[in-house]
Specification:
Blueprint: H1 3-22, H2 30-41, H3 44-58, H4 72-88, H5 94-110
């Protein structure tokens, strides 16, 4: 990845992290965050597929009582970066890269 791409990914991650607290423009939603990272890195279709899959998982996350829901912004950004690195690393199997990113998103969101 080029330095400009890395800078744009950091800006998207910053927006998603801030929106997880501010909750105003919904940048922290997996569909938006993964789509933006996919667009910035040159993998827009894969970003939308990953974001849609993570959004369906995140629909069931809610703060109930003292329990805190997993962080959807962290899961989205980290899994999108993992997916992009897998696709840029020579892995031509898009489905395997997306499945790996989804499998790693759940433990990352709870951490």
């Amino acid at each position: 990845m080029t330095p400009i791409t890395i800078l744009l990914v950091v800006i998207v991650a910053l927006l998603a992290g801030m929106e997880g607290i501010l909750d105003q423009w919904e940048f922290h939603q997996p569909l938006v965050a993964c789509s933006l990272i996919g667009l910035v890195t040159g993998h827009p279709a894969e970003g939308i597929f990953l974001g849609g899959s993570l959004q369906m998982i995140a629909l069931g996350w809610a703060n109930i009582g003292a329990a805190v829901a997993p962080d959807a912004a962290l899961a989205s950004v980290a899994s999108a970066i993992i997916m992009v690195l897998a696709l840029n690393g020579g892995d031509t199997d898009t489905t395997a890269a997306i499945n790996t990113a989804i499998a790693l998103a759940i433990p990352l969101s709870v951490a």
